[in-house]
Amino acid sequence: MSLSLLRHTPYLTSAVPLPIQYFFISLTKMPKTRLSTMRQDSGAPKFQLKCSEVGGVVPKNRVRKRSVEMIAKEVKTESPDQKFLRHPEIEDFANNSGNIYSQSIQPPANWERVIEGIRRMRSSEHAPVDSIDPDEGVTSLQPKERRFAVLVGSLLSSQTKGHVTHEANQRLLENGLLSADSMNKADEVTIKSLIYPVGFYTRKARHLKQVAKICVSKYDGDIPGTVDELLLLPGVGPKIAHLVMIMAWNKVEGICVDTHVHRVSNRLGWVSQPGKKQGTRSPEETRVSLQQWLPKEEWVSINLLLVGFGQTICTPLRPRCAKCTVSEFCPSAFKEISSPASTSRTLSPKKKH
């Protein structure tokens, strides 16, 4: 599978200047004086000065004292049901949770019928992704080694066909290099020869050596256990990080979006750029957009479902719309379109996935 993604962390951080946070109240209701900031209550006593105070000379300290006393009588405790816009916490921006500025996203119309229709089509036609058993040969490994093997396979899968990735992983297994310790001790030339012909095998061999060294020195031969820590590893981007969390740690923290999921989601009109009607420009934008409305119980299955559908029916070029049973719900049906990722003719090998 080809895994082209952006780095995760930048999309969730938004800095709002402090003064702006304090002035979200409508300007049309902005008080003109300090006294007018008090809640108006028909039952509250009127603030009046005696004629002698208006025409005569009153000591400044007396006026100040009387004013404070009168204001204290006017001001009432804020009622429990009175709601104001709270100041956002740092965690709100960092985790994209509880964001008071984001609006709820309505799920696309008929999305459940579309998923059910795709499931029926997938069950009746074999896809290349169905031929790969990710657990072949690794179930007998110790837990640490099995998790490291999952990380290695995920790194190799970037911009590489599934069967090529699988065969490279098997060669590493047969040569005893699917543990962080053995990989760390192996030379880069050996690793490169064993993983060839995966995409960018020279760069991936270097990344595997670096990853193995980090896992040995920092995690005692195991792999990182969080998305943030995985993203610090060479060659690891959001897609790989979320895939590893699911496969290695059995934790679902995000949707795995590759080029197939990215393409199909855009054709179905399921995703869009923030604040715009245009489709997403990258798999990472697609992941963020999907997670705003797709129920979490669908996050794992949606990857395999749409990958196989994209390999057999909703192909990058000349999609088989006539055979698609959900074309009536697809705004792109019978339009000869290519993958949204194909706008860039050259692939950047330096991009993390």
Report on this structure.
The chain is mainly alpha-helical and 353 residues long. The chain folds into two domains: 1-13 and 110-126 and 255-353, Helix-hairpin-Helix base-excision DNA repair enzymes (C-terminal) (Endonuclease Iii, domain 2, Orthogonal Bundle); 130-249, Hypothetical protein, domain 2 (Endonuclease III, domain 1). The protein contains 15 helices and no strands. It has helices spanning 18-22, 51-55, 60-74, 90-95, 111-124, 143-157, 162-174, 180-185, 188-195, 201-219, 227-230, 238-249, 259-267, 283-291, 301-312. The longest helix has 19 residues, at 201-219. It is elongated. The model is unreliable at 1-58, 75-103 and 342-347 (pLDDT under 50).
What are the segments in which pLDDT stays under 50 over at least 5 consecutive residues?
Answer: 1-58, 75-103, 342-347
Broad structural category: mainly alpha
- Compute the CA-based radius of gyration: 30 Å
CATH-derived topology of the largest domain: Endonuclease Iii, domain 2
By DSSP (H or I, 4+ residues per run), the number of helices equals 15
Task: Average the pLDDT over all residues and give the rounded result.
Answer: 77
Please state the overall shape, judged from the principal axes of the Cα atoms: elongated
State the end-to-end CA separation.
11 Å
Largest sheet: none
